[in-house]
Write a structure and sequence with these properties.
alpha+beta, three-stranded antiparallel β-sheet, 33% helix, elongated
Length: 64
């Protein structure tokens, strides 16, 4: 049976934590920042964990 290749675009955007959760960063934090409130920009700075329904798909895409 063939091997599953790492999806490079996904590997750049997602990573795995030590416990196996999929870590990601928020979008909408690149441009037009003058329109967004300070609270919104502050919350977009922090990382996030992908929901468990999507996590198995991305784990297979970014496996080493």
């Amino acid at each position: 049976m063939g091997k599953v290749k790492t999806h490079k675009a996904s590997a750049k955007r997602f990573s795995l934590t030590g416990s196996g959760k999929v870590k990601m960063s928020h979008n909408n934090h690149r441009h037009n920042l003058g329109l967004k409130t300070a609270k919104r920009k502050r919350n977009l700075r922090k990382g996030a964990v992908l929901s468990e329904c999507f996590a198995p798909t991305y784990r297979t895409l970014i496996q080493k």
